[in-house]
# Entry
Amino acid sequence: MEEIVQFIYGIEIDKIFSVFLAIGVILLFKILSSMISKLILKLLKTKGRDGKELTKNPFYLPLKTIFTYIGIYIAISIIVATFTIDPDIVIIIRKATKILMIISIARAFGESFDGKNAKLIKIKTKDDQEMDRATKRILLRTIRIFIYIIAGFMIVAEFGHNLGGLITGLGLSGVVLTLAAQDTAKSLIGGIALFVDKPFKAGDYIKINNYEGTVEDIKFRSTSIRTLEDSVLHIPNSEMAIAAIVNCGEMTKRRFCTDLVLELSTKLEDVKLIENKIQEMLIENEMVIDDTIHISFESITDNGIKLLVIAYINRSNYYEFLEIKEQINFEIINILNSYNVELAYNTQTVFIKR
# Structure
């Protein structure tokens, strides 16, 4: 007990004050970090007025972490200036604090740019349209990787390593890895090409090679497509980047085209009347674009008179198009029946020599 009392009385008042001051600085910066971060975001005129909206801002958590570690660094400086500590230990403490700060800030930025927060981050393209979800997710993923790479280089620099030599070594290693995994590298490059060109987005119905379906996700290495059989197809981006892609999601209208082969015995006057009647029927249909209607006597075949009927339907949805197409086909058959004209079928005359 006497030894404890002697130890307490042996401690200098200024050292005790420095310890409490250091603790107070840490607590003060911890408390004020949230307030200062919100104030900076308000000065930058970011979206959101109240505290809850500001805390969802992607830069709120990193700013709060930075100010917290500033308080810790100041507290360590106060302790070092007051107590007699070995210089080597001081260097280790400072480096450890910097490394923890780098890791914490990188993690805070990484969580802020996580794909789950994609809806909180408004990214717009050159034409002032909001970027689609898949493209935004790829961009945020790239930013996160870039943040962690920078943090890694900063940590390596804190250990006193030469970054120039490290980058050169990574470059050589990258060449070796690329040669060892060319297919993966091609897919990654293909993913970047799809991100830049944007031939389709998530939710579009596309046709590529012998596949077709709805795009579900666009990742760095592959693109996921849900087929008509409800299975998920993963196509490497190296194939997607060089293949011819039909994007049905960008269609604004669909083409109706049919061939009517009338019997050869059909009178030409009836053929002309049927053409006019079909044209009137298409014009009366609200879903048909009038200036795209084309009906013509195309050719005379072995079986009959061939009429070509072309028109564009003002619907991009495939199932809605099928319904309108069915209506038009019914109307065409009714018109032919009203003139007692039948469609020709393949016939063949066989002469038997006796």
Notes: The longest helix spans residues 13-43. The CA atoms of residues 81 and 136 lie 48 Å apart.
